[in-house]
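User: two proteins, same treatment. go.

Assistant:
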Amino acid sequence: GYGNEAPPGLGAGAVVGARPGPTVPATAMRTTAAGRTLEIVAALGIATVQDLGRPGLMRLGVTPGGALDRRALVLGNRLLGNDPGAAALECAIAGPTLRFGADTLVVVAGADFGPRLDGADVSPWSPFIARAGTVLSFARPARPGTGLRCFVCLE
């Protein structure tokens, strides 16, 4: 297992539910610290958990890492009232299918992959409530010129 660390890539069947600890700050995992889970039902592209990275640690051999579309991550988090650098699910090329284990306030930020909640369209860049058991899916993969990454930000 990965303990408190997220695996480098998340595939179908993964359940994201990290606990605060030495590698996961409590502020970055508010949602999962309350016992909520997010199940990855199907993974079509690449999905990783990203925050703003670890700037200033190159002298120790730690690359900054973090979200590739920093603006989308920060704006998505701000729409929810989160810390701008809070961790989110970064989806590249195509969005996964996700099932919520508890009522959760969500924003899908970044490239428009056509987010749908239980089959109904939801607007990117607009907060919505995903009730426990609902499924977030994406209608289309990234299109040329519209961006390659979206972020699923959770309150």
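Protein 2:
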Amino acid sequence: GKYAEQSSTLVEENGVPRLAMDAVDDNLSTYSHTNCDMPWWLVDLGFNAPIEHVTIVNRWCEDPNDAPGCLCQLSDATVFLMDEDWWVVDYEEVGDACGLHESVHFLTTASPSASPTLEVTDPNNLSCPMARYVKIEGTTGEQVAMFEVSVMSGG
């Protein structure tokens, strides 16, 4: 996985910290979780690359049939793509993530999504933006939590 960091780290009652790196470890039994009012999560891809899409696997509590409280934590978050100079080159709002068990797709091309859940697209963006960083910012005061974030690049 790539290097990831977040604004703060929730420590569970059992003492297990929910680290930023847990969202890029290809393991759906771990998850990233912040613990603050102005939460953010960020992954450094290491270099500018053409970003085709970002998939965020939403976190549920206990099991996928759990109440939507945890699933709502990504609602209205904003996903930013930033270049190596930290300039925002593209962004999308996640929208209502409540009840979405599978994944939230942030697409940066006009390609159709195979996602059965939420699709956020920009039909006017026909070329892939070059970005080094992917940042997810909470905008509602809710903590940010997710199982996995994957970034697909054409380069």
